[in-house]
Each structure stands twice: as C-alpha cells, then as structure tokens.
C-alpha cells in the first residue's frame, strides 16, 4: 500500500473521530449547550474543511501524475 492510500485512510479515520466527537459533546468550546443547530453547523464546518483538504490532495495528485 502506498503513502497516498495510507494518508487517505488516516484522514478518513480522523474525520470520523472528529465528527463523532462534535456530535456527542454536550457543550461546545465556549461552554454553551450544544443544540441540534450548533451540532449541524459544527459538522458543516468540518465537512467544508475536509473538502478543502480533498481539493488540495486532488490538485497535488494531478500535478504529480503529469
């Protein structure tokens, strides 16, 4: 298995662990109660962040492939 696959597996595991943590914590970082809306916004921010990482990976892959 090459480094690219290992990196993607690690990122997937990191995403899942972070998403579970954000969903199950009773209070957010400021100490406010974690309501359903706050949970969804937190997960949306996490998803946008990981989409950015995915796009950077794709760009690097396309550059390396040439």
What is shown here, in short?
By secondary structure, the chain is mainly α. The chain is built from two helices and no strands.
How would you describe this protein?
By secondary structure, the chain is an all-alpha fold. The protein has helices at residues 3-24, 36-65. The longest helix is centred in the C-terminal third of the chain and has 30 residues, at 36-65. It starts with a helix and ends with a helix. The relative contact order is 0.11. The mean pLDDT is 91.
Multimeric state of these chains?
A: single chain
Task: Look at the structure and give the mean pLDDT.
Answer: 91
- Largest beta-sheet details: none
Shape: elongated
Please give the radius of gyration in angstroms.
Answer: 15 Å
User: Which percent range fits the helix content?
Assistant: over 70%
Order of helices and strands: HH
Tell me the strand percentage band.
Answer: under 5%
- Low-confidence regions: none
Number of E strands: 0
How far from one another are the termini?
A: 21 Å
Helix/strand-derived category reads mainly alpha
Count of helical regions = 2
Entry keywords:
66 residues, mainly alpha, 2 helices, 79% helix
Topology record:
Blueprint: H1 3-24, H2 36-65
Helix pairs in contact: 1-2
């Amino acid at each position: 298995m090459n480094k690219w696959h290992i990196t993607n597996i690690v990122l997937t595991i990191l995403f899942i662990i972070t998403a579970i943590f954000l969903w199950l914590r009773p209070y957010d970082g400021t100490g406010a109660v974690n309501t359903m809306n706050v949970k969804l916004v937190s997960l949306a921010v996490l998803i946008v962040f990981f989409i950015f990482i995915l796009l950077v990976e794709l760009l690097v892959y396309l550059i390396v492939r040439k």
